[in-house]
Amino acid sequence: MSKLAIMRKRMLGAATVGAVMVGAVAGGVDAAARDIRKVKNGEMSRRDAAADVAREAGTTGLATGAAVAVVGALGLGGVLSVLGVAAMATGAKYLLDSAVDKAARTAKPAATPKAALAPSRSKTAPAPKARKAKSVKAKSKAAPAKAAIPAAE
Fold it and tell me: What is the pLDDT of residue 144?
């Protein structure tokens, strides 16, 4: 392998790592800007927002890095390389989002702390019956109130 080929391979590796980092920052900033408003409006919890930011940063970084690696390996230059990176990154991001969404749908939800601490009921033991509400028309056991006697003058 010639020195030029080795140097080009090193540069492509450095460019790919740089693209992953820039893509992750861009994806994370975009998701954070979107999710801050949702958290303030009560539409999303902070935990869900943090998970969304991490997911977007990761998938955007990987898609961008993969696109730069492929276009760099093909040796494209100029406007064609920019269009190639945009097209490859879009396709890779779409595929990564589809895979993450599918994995999230099929994964079992994690037990919440309250559910984890609550005693589990066996299938053979019946659930406790709800108490019946007392009737509103229940008789009062208190003595009837005496009428006030006006004071004599």
Answer: 57
